[in-house]
Each structure stands twice: as structure tokens, then as C-alpha cells.
Design goal:
Largest sheet: none
Distance between the termini: 85 Å
Low-confidence stretches: none
Order of helices and strands: HH
Number of strands: 0
Strand content: under 5%
Helix content: 55-70%
């Protein structure tokens, strides 16, 4: 009989912890259909699209500049001129 009551006690404690740790019901995005939020959300989406587009343009320009620098270093190295080091600014 003792093991039966011990098992029931353990089961009760486990159920109590499960109830305490269970996720709560939340309202989530209760005001998502608010007419004042729609224009703001649309504006934010447009701004994010513009940011992504600008970042893409910046990345393309940096890639072109990097390639131009690489080609310039090759030409300088072939011409016997001073080799440009890429270790950063000198003191």
C-alpha cells in the first residue's frame, strides 16, 4: 500500500509542476486589425524594403571597389612599381 500512495504522491507533484510550467494563453496580437496600425505597418514594411535595397547596392559597390583594388595591385606588381601593402595605415 505504501508504494501505491508514494506513486500517487509523485504523480500529483508531477501534475502540479506541469500545471505551473504549462504555457499561458496570451492575447498575442489582439489589436492587429486596428485601423491606426495598418498605415504604420505599411510604412515600416516600405522602409525595410528600402533598407534591404540600399544594403544590396552598397554590397555591390564594395565588391566592385574591392575588385578594382585587386586589379590595381596586380598591375602595380607587374609593372615593378612600389607594392601596396594592405596592412593598414602606417604611423
Amino acid at each position: 500500500m505504501k508504494t501505491h500512495s508514494l506513486l500517487l504522491s509523485a504523480l500529483g507533484v508531477t501534475a502540479a509542476f506541469a500545471l505551473l510550467l504549462a504555457p499561458r494563453v496570451s492575447s498575442g496580437q489582439a489589436g492587429a486589425d486596428d485601423p491606426l496600425l495598418s498605415p504604420l505597418i505599411a510604412e515600416i514594411v516600405k522602409q525595410q524594403d528600402a533598407i534591404v535595397e540600399n544594403q544590396t547596392k552598397i554590397d555591390e559597390k564594395l565588391a566592385l571597389i574591392g575588385e578594382d583594388i585587386r586589379i590595381a595591385r596586380i598591375y602595380v606588381g607587374r609593372g615593378g612599381g612600389k607594392v601596396i601593402e594592405s596592412t593598414g595605415p602606417r604611423p
